[in-house]
Specification:
The complex is a heterodimer.
Chain A: E1 8-21, E2 24-37, E3 41-45, H1 52-60, E4 67-72, E5 75-76, H2 82-92, E6 93-96, H3 108-118, H4 123-136, H5 152-164, E7 170-174, H6 182-196, E8 202-206, E9 218-223, E10 226-231, H7 234-239
Parallel strand pairs in A: 3-8, 3-9, 6-7, 7-8
Antiparallel strand pairs in A: 1-2, 1-4, 4-5, 9-10
Helix pairs in contact in A: 3-4, 3-5, 4-5, 5-6
Chain B: H1 2-11, H2 13-44, H3 46-50, E1 55-58, H4 75-80, E2 85-99, E3 105-113, E4 124-128, E5 138-142, H5 143-148, E6 151-154, E7 160-163, E8 170-173, E9 176-185, E10 195-199, H6 200-206, E11 216-221, H7 227-238, E12 241-244, H8 257-268, H9 271-310, H10 315-350, H11 360-387
Parallel strand pairs in B: 3-10, 5-9
Antiparallel strand pairs in B: 1-11, 1-12, 2-3, 2-8, 2-11, 4-9, 5-10, 6-7, 8-9
The chains are: A alpha/beta, B alpha+beta.
Bound molecules: adenosine-5'-diphosphate (ADP) and magnesium ion.
The site of magnesium ion (MG) has 2 residues of chain A, from helix 1.
């Protein structure tokens, strides 16, 4: 008997996303269907321009698609207004960006506090929680420094701390390792796996870095604006050749 | 979040310095230019400040204080008989040449005041006593004039140096001796020359040729009669023109001679135009500089505001962050700029150089303008951030 399939965390179906004017239209997503489960780390892979970032943005509620439905942890995103989407992101999402997007004029710990302060948590509480997670990502002692004083890998660790400090159910990472060397990239993925593993959390990682494929539970391949196949065979994943 | 907003602002010292310099410079420019403008304009009615009396009476054709049209001495008794007048004193003002001991001539403002009442006498003497004006051939000279008329000589360092006139020194007006018995402190005038006070009767002597010497009459109302009321009565009973002497620019009445002088210069000379354009220029440059610097601050942070927005900060929070940043920068910039303007003003006044009057209103107006600029910059920033696509954070 096979174990029960974990419940769905993210479901996007029939998503269309166009950019540009009607005469000069770029089709980024075309009837895209995507599913991610609770407790898993799923990777979105595919050639540049195939629509990975666009799909991620749709799931994150930063882009509203022209057609299709999106459901994240039971919450339908289509039909939500800007305010509701903002509030959805605040509560449910953690972001890790390719270019880190840390605020250079703030200290490391202040950067990590941002999601908590946006939620309206008191400064002292945010400070304490940020301090604790910075320790977890191995940057104890660097709290008061500026992000720019850190290496790329360290900066991405700060970003991971920031993405997880408010314990969001959905963690999304866009090309988290592409600005890092091989070993650092592997360390970062190891950290994402270790820290985000939870039966209630879902992690979606967009990448075209095949060296990190082995960290995925499943890999969804994209082509021309839609998911072409989903790989969940551990052997295939291990070889890192799809 | 506000604490973070401030830390974002203070985090980059170099950029903060630029921003504050821009704001401070524009505040300085605005405060400084308007202060000089009002300073110059206040010089036009200097006699109203130096010669103190509640009501001034002049020939009906007179439009401003620097342009006296002589009255008859008999007008004194006509005004004296108006109901509500406590006393009337004659006043002579004219520009005459004075011959210094070294033979040089200087244009002076001769002020002749009533020897009985000393009405219109300078308020502050730094040397001598006003009563000594009753001695023969005596005058009181203002401090700044005393140095202007000073004797050229060689200082201990071998460089040419002018020694200010002092009590006991003499000069001549129309070949009649003038002996200094006092030095007073008065406000400088637009027309320049030193103020030389003497008695009304002696002023007649100093200006030998003049047939009529009564320039103005200084009038004190009886208790319970307001200056404005008395002006009305004097004008009705004598056909002369009567003025009040209020000089507080934001508070002066219709009949104020200072006010009418101010507006006479405003409409009949190029001063307001030339200095007014300088003020306007200062304003525009100030607005441009501070708007531009704050705007570039917002642009530099746009990326990070977009990230904060993606992470779930509503526009309300971001708007408040931008306001906190803008107003903080505005406040500090204003403080620095206004402080500098005051410092420069002080230095200028100490050197007896150009006019400078920084009314509290000027400071307030500058304050409001700088904060207005900050407000507008913040609004522009907020519009910018609101247009930024939260999805843009995934790019680049
Ligand atoms: N904001 C946008 N405006 C216009 N075209 C866009 C925009 N975002 C993405 N695209 C286009 O949509 C397609 C998919 O882009 P993207 O999702 O970024 O691809 P990927 O992340 O897989 O490289 C590309 O052709 C890209 O040029
Ligand atoms: Mg991409």
């Amino acid at each position: 008997m096979s174990p029960p399939t974990p419940p769905i965390a993210v479901r996007a179906s029939g998503v269309d996303m166009f950019f540009g004017t009607p005469d000069n239209q770029v089709v980024a997503l075309k009837q895209a269907d995507f599913e991610a489960r609770r407790g898993e780390l799923i990777m979105l892979v595919g050639p540049s321009g195939c629509g990975k970032t666009t799909l991620l943005s749709v799931i994150a509620g930063t882009l509203t698609p022209q057609a299709g439905s999106v459901e994240v942890f039971g919450q339908r995103l289509d039909g939500l207004g800007q305010e509701e989407l903002t509030s959805f992101r605040r509560k449910n999402l953690g972001f890790v960006f390719q270019s880190f997007n840390l605020i250079p004029t703030l200290s490391v710990i202040e950067n990590v506090m941002v999601p908590l302060l946006i939620q309206g948590r008191p400064y002292d509480e945010a400070h304490a929680r940020a301090g604790a997670i910075i320790e977890k990502v191995g940057l104890k002692g660097r709290e008061e420094g500026r992000p720019n004083a850190l290496s790329g890998g360290q900066q991405q660790r700060v970003a991971i701390a920031r993405a997880l400090v408010h314990e969001p159910p959905l963690l999304i990472c866009d090309e988290p390792t592409s600005a890092l060397d091989k070993d650092t990239g592997a360390q970062i993925m190891q950290m994402v796996r270790d820290l985000s593993r939870s039966p209630e959390r879902c992690v979606v990682v967009v990448t075209h870095d095949h060296r990190i494929f082995r960290f995925a539970d499943r890999i969804a391949e994209m082509e021309d604006g839609r998911i072409s196949r989903v790989v969940d065979d551990p052997k295939l994943l291990e070889t890192a050749h799809l | 979040m506000y604490r973070l907003a401030l830390n974002m602002l203070f985090g980059d010292r170099a950029k903060l310095a630029m921003l504050l310099c821009g704001l401070a410079f524009s505040a300085l420019l605005m405060a400084q230019q308007s202060s000089v403008f009002f300073g110059i304009m206040s010089w036009t009615y200097t006699p109203m400040v130096n010669i103190r009396a509640q009501v001034w009476v002049s020939d009906p054709m007179v439009e401003q204080v620097n342009d006296a049209k002589p009255l008859r001495d008999t007008d004194l008794s006509r005004v004296r008989s108006v109901d509500g007048v406590a006393w009337v004193a004659p006043l002579h003002t004219s520009f005459v040449q004075a011959r210094m001991q070294d033979g040089n001539f200087k244009l002076i403002t001769l002020v002749g005041i009533d020897a009985d009442t000393f009405a219109g006498a300078p308020a502050l003497l730094t040397q001598g006593r006003i009563e000594d004006l009753r001695l023969p051939d005596t005058v009181i000279v203002d401090e700044w004039g005393a140095s202007l008329m000073g004797r050229m000589g060689v200082g201990p360092d071998g460089k040419p140096r002018s020694t200010p006139l002092k009590v006991g020194d003499t000069f001549e007006i129309n070949d009649i001796q003038a002996r200094i018995v006092g030095i007073c402190k008065v406000k400088r005038a637009f027309t320049g020359g030193p103020f030389v006070y003497t008695t009304y009767d002696r002023a007649k002597g100093y200006t030998l040729g003049a047939r009529r010497t009564l320039s103005f009459m200084l009038v004190e109302p009886q208790k319970g009669v307001t200056p404005t009321e008395l002006c009305g009565r004097i004008e009705r009973d004598t056909g002369l023109k009567a003025w009040t002497s209020d000089t507080v620019i934001w508070n002066w009445g219709e009949r104020s001679l200072a006010r009418n002088t101010f507006w006479w210069f405003w409409t009949n000379t190029g001063i307001p135009f030339s200095f007014g354009t300088a003020v306007l220029l200062g304003l525009f440059v100030g607005i441009a500089i501070s708007g531009q610097t704050f705007y570039s601050f917002v642009l530099e942070n746009l990326k990070y505001f977009a990230a904060i927005k993606a992470m779930g900060a509503g526009m309300g929070v971001i708007a408040r962050m931008l306001f906190v940043q803008a107003f903080t920068a505005g406040l500090i910039g204003f403080g620095l700029g206004a402080g500098m303007a005051q410092g420069i003003g002080r230095a200028m006044i100490e050197k007896g150089m150009p006019p400078f009057v920084m009314y509290p209103q000027i400071l307030w107006a500058t304050f409001v303008l700088v904060l207005g600029i900050s407000f507008v910059s913040a609004i522009i920033g907020i519009i910018k951030v609101s247009r930024v696509d939260a999805a843009s954070v995934f790019r680049g």
